[in-house]
Specification:
Number of strands: 5
Largest sheet: 5 strands, parallel
CATH superfamily: Response regulator
Order of helices and strands: EHEHEHEHEH
Distance between the termini: 6 Å
Number of helices: 5
CATH class: Alpha Beta
Strand order of the largest sheet: 2-1-3-4-5
Number of domains: 1
Shape: globular
CATH topology: Rossmann fold
Length: 127
């Protein structure tokens, strides 16, 4: 079964960079892009998503709010929140949601441990 990873960021360039890093780490994963939290929720209503990478700063809803909603509906989904805002409070809030904090700029190295951990969790779940 193909793994579907949702990349949510209001910056098209940031989505391209993240998808390129994901492709290098897991070339067989299907990347689905959303430019806003609303778009992400719409996509989640239409198709199966296995992993989510969420930008923290978005105009309609921040990544923590979206992660909280996703966590309620998908308790075991691997979720990462990406941001350049590296404050202890934000890192703690991300971790409190059982999500992974990834600092921007997003690179293959920055995403590597999250992606490998997500792959392991999905394999154990039979996905």
């Amino acid at each position: 079964m193909t793994v579907n990873i949702l990349v949510v960021d209001d910056s098209k360039l940031a989505r391209i960079v993240a998808c390129k890093a994901i492709s290098a780490l897991q070339p067989e994963w299907n990347k689905v892009e959303a430019g806003s939290a609303a778009d992400a929720l719409s996509i989640l209503g239409e198709q199966r998503i296995d992993v989510a990478i969420l930008d923290f700063n978005m105009p309609d809803k921040d990544g923590l709010e979206l992660a909280s909603e996703l966590r309620a509906d998908y308790p075991v989904m691997p979720i990462a929140v990406i941001t350049a805002n590296v404050q202890d409070e934000i890192v703690a809030r991300v971790r409190a949601l059982n999500a992974t904090f990834v600092a921007k700029p997003v690179t293959q190295d920055a995403l590597s441990s999250f992606i490998s951990g997500a792959a392991l969790r999905l394999k154990k779940a039979g996905i």
